[in-house]
């Protein structure tokens, strides 16, 4: 996981300055305060940072190993991705524009194709012609298929068509992209709820998963976005992108802990290989010095 290590190097370097090695018992009160501050600065969040330090102090051995164990213990139990035994696996992808939603869908479609699965992508973000074009490029490159309508078309209609076609033609995976203007936009939230409802109408078990893409460099904004979308979209998992651009990789732990949601993928760069399946052990080992 050297790519992940590279991607998280800024976060790790920042934490290295705050977390002295050595045994838990040998650290002074002041050093523990520094560690807690370091975790807060890495965007673990004040509440989680306090809890992590509290847990780590009770453990034996080296401070970094103790922190690592306490981080792992604070993450929710993660169930496997809810893929159905038969029929298409329907994945709804939500999130605010600019977080990397389009490229992330392209990358996920490519991954499924590489596993030999047929993939249909629905472009229900009908307000951004440029984003649809960009998505089309990814979809074609992946060898997947796409459902699209004219600019400004009803997103729910696109979602409905996508699911109907996905079921009729027995695709393995159906991914529905959605619009993400501003999370405070009431109209957008109503629209998202409608897209979800229509998907369930077209195929009663769907969506099987709802993944929200968030930009890992945006701190409290990311927290608010998850809070907002969770109610309306019924978010079941997170994808945290752009962790390479900031020293704030702790946001991944904060979001997962705070909302009890699994992180499914993390993004540490723009290429296909930079989106990787989240593994708590590897992530935390890459985050800590
Ligand atoms: P959307 O508006 O949410 O659909 O965002 P896009 O998919 O268009 O992505 C916006 C920009 O972020 C693009 O230039 C992507 O290449 C870039 N991007 C996406 N994920 C990552 C990441 O993990 N790291 C970095 N550095 N850039 C990313």
From TrEMBL:
Catalytic activity: GTP + H2O = GDP + phosphate + H(+)
Entries under InterPro entries matching the protein: AAA+_ATPase, P-loop_NTPase, Signal_recog_particl_SRP54_hlx, SR_rcpt_FtsY, SRP/SRP_N, SRP54_GTPase_dom, SRP54_N_sf
Domain SRP54-type proteins GTP-binding: start-end pairs: 262-275
SUPFAM superfamilies (alphabetical): Domain of the SRP/SRP receptor G-proteins, P-loop containing nucleoside triphosphate hydrolases
GO CC, any one term: plasma membrane
Gene3D superfamilies with a match to the protein in the record: P-loop containing nucleotide triphosphate hydrolases (3.40.50.300), Signal recognition particle SRP54, nucleotide-binding domain (1.20.120.140)
Source organism superkingdom: Bacteria
Localization annotation: Cell membrane; Cytoplasm
Family, per entry: Belongs to the GTP-binding SRP family. FtsY subfamily.
Name of the protein in question: Signal recognition particle receptor FtsY
Source organism of this protein record: Mariprofundus aestuarium
């Amino acid at each position: 996981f050297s790519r992940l290590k590279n991607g998280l190097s800024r976060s790790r370097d920042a934490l290295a300055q705050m977390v002295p090695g050595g045994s838990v018992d040998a650290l002074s009160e002041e050093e523990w305060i520094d560690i807690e501050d370091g975790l807060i600065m890495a965007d673990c969040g004040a509440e989680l940072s306090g809890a992590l330090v509290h847990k780590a102090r009770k453990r034996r051995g080296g401070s970094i190993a103790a922190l690592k164990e306490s981080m792992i213990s604070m993450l929710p139990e993660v169930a496997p991705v809810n893929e159905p035994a038969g029929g298409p696996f329907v994945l709804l992808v939500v999130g605010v524009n600019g977080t990397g939603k389009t490229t992330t869908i392209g990358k996920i479609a490519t991954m499924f194709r590489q596993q030999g699965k047929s993939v249909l992508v629905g472009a229900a973000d009908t307000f951004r012609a440029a984003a649809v074009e960009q998505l089309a490029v990814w979809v074609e490159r992946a060898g997947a298929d796409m459902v699209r309508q004219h600019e400004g078309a009803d997103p729910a209609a696109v979602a409905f068509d996508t699911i109907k076609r996905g079921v009729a033609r027995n695709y393995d995976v159906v991914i529905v992209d959605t619009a993400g203007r501003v999370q405070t936009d009431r109209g957008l939230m109503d629209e998202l709820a409608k897209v979800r409802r229509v998907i369930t109408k077209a195929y009663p078990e769907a969506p099987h998963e709802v993944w929200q893409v968030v930009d890992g460099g945006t701190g409290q904004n990311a927290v608010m976005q998850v809070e907002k979308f969770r109610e309306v979209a019924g978010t079941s998992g997170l994808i945290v992108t752009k962790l390479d651009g900031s020293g704030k990789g702790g946001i991944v732990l904060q979001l997962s802990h705070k909302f009890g949601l699994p992180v499914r993928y993390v993004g540490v760069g723009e290429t296909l290989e930079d989106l990787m399946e989240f593994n708590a052990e590897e992530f935390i080992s890459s985050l800590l010095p």
